[in-house]
Amino acid sequence: MNLWACGQLSTSPETQTWYRAIQPQFWTTALQTSQTTTFPTRFNEGANAHPQFEILYLAEDHQLALFEAQALLGSPLTPGSIVPQPRKAWVILNVQVVLQAVTDLTQVTSQNIVGTTAQELTGDWRGYTLRSPSTSISQPTGTAPTQALGAQLHAVPGLEGFLTLSAKIPYGRVLAVFPDKLRSGSTVEFVNTASRDTHLIAGADPL
After folding, report:
1. Backbone angles phi, psi at 6, to 5 degrees
2. N or C: which end of the chain has fewer CB within 10 A?
3. What is the pLDDT of residues 8-25, one digit of tens each?
4. What is the rounded distance in angstroms from the CA atom of residue 9 to the CA atom of residue 102?
């Protein structure tokens, strides 16, 4: 990848409803992202990132949200193969997003700028921490390319998040938000209509 080119990516506003699947016991922390500084994800190395940062993943529709959370198993490309996760209950959050500067990595032109592809963006990242001298395949290890990309995008001044391809459904989109990068006036909000509780991530006013 040409990580140095991340600053050349164009941005645009993102203002629509996105979705997140969570387990019911996490209602009170519906938009919490502090765990992402510890546990690695596709675009964040977690505790090994330097510096550490938080990231929130949202899906473009209900079905994709369930697949991203592994609440649905199987493949939507194979008729009859989808089954629900049998031991857990899930709820889907409607998350209202108002962001001012998001880059779109689903566009081939953007992928070309940073020297990546749809295959690389959706490929294996877990293996980079699972391979070791004791496994039959010992390399590569360390930081996955997508994690390096996520860290570099987080470092781009003013960039609040990015759109990317889902690794679960090849024609689906995922929105990754950097909560600490939100500008004044930018918000990510979920309103629990049953309890009237509001969960809000809001950009801070400049000092």
Report:
1. -60, -35
2. C
3. 999 999 999 999 999 988
4. 9
